[in-house]
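Before relying on records like the one below, remember that each one covers exactly one chain. Contacts with other chains, cofactors or solvent are not represented anywhere in the record.
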Amino acid sequence: MSATVELPRTGLPGTGLGGLWRVVVLNDEFNTFDHVAETLCSVVPDVTLADGYRIADRIHNKGCAIVWSGPREDAEGYWVALDDAGLTMGPLESA
């Protein structure tokens, strides 16, 4: 008969739901800087229009950018909203 071993908690309550997830936007040839910046500031919490333009510039120059990271359920919602707005999305990534 085997014994059940309970491992010690390594994080705070609520952190056992998969940790942080990253929402990644990819560069493309059809979305304008304005559309990307405006979409980011309307979808992603705490992203201002100025932040949106900085992120759009990073996407353009680096090929992609992590635009948000946090709990999986929220990440999925932001990913879907950005995708629905026409942005080119990378796969949702576990941090």
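Helices lie at 33-43, 49-62, 72-84.
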